[in-house]
Amino acid sequence: MASLVRQLQSKAAVATEIAAKHGSSYYKQLLENNKQYIQSEPTVQKCQELSKQLFYTRLASIPGRYEAFWKEVDYIKQRLLARNDLKLEEVGIAALFAGECYAWFCVGEIVGRGGTLTGYRV
Q1: What is the rounded distance in angstroms from the CA atom of residue 96 to the CA atom of residue 83?
Q2: Which pLDDT band, with edges at 50, 70 and 90, does 57 fall under?
Q3: How distant, in Å, are the alpha carbons of 63, 83, 118, 122 from that of 99?
Q4: Digit-coded pLDDT (tens) for 6-25
Q5: What CA–CA distance (Å, rounded) separates 23 from 17?
Q6: Hey, where are the domains in the chain?
Q7: Model-level pTM?
Q8: Distance between CA 119 and CA 103 in Å, rounded?
Q9: Residue 86 region, left (φ>0) first, then alpha (ψ -120 to 50), else beta?
C-alpha cells in the first residue's frame, strides 16, 4: 500500500512539474488562437454592452426554441399513438431515460435537504 502511495505521489509531482513548465505557454497560445474574441478596450461600458447583446440575443432565440419544443412534443405524441409499432429497444431507452430523470430528481431532493446518499453525515 505504501509503495502505491509513493508511486501516486511521484506521478502527481511529475504532472505538477509539467503543468508548471508548460502552463504559461499553453495560456499564451490559447489567447493567441482566440484573440478575435478578445475586446481591445476592456471597459465597464463595453462589458455591459456585451452582456446586453447576449441577453437580447438569447431573448430573440426563444420563439425558435418554442417551435422546436412543440415539434418534439408532436413527435412524441405520434410515437405514443403508434405505440404498437415501437421496437423493444426504443421502449427500453425511453424507460431508462425516465428512470434516470427520476433518479436525478430524487438525488437532488436528498442533497438539497442536506442529506447524504449513504445516510451517514460527515
Answers
A1: 17
A2: very high
A3: 30, 19, 20, 29
A4: 888 888 888 888 888 887 88
A5: 10
A6: 1-38, 41-85, 87-116
A7: 0.46
A8: 16
A9: beta
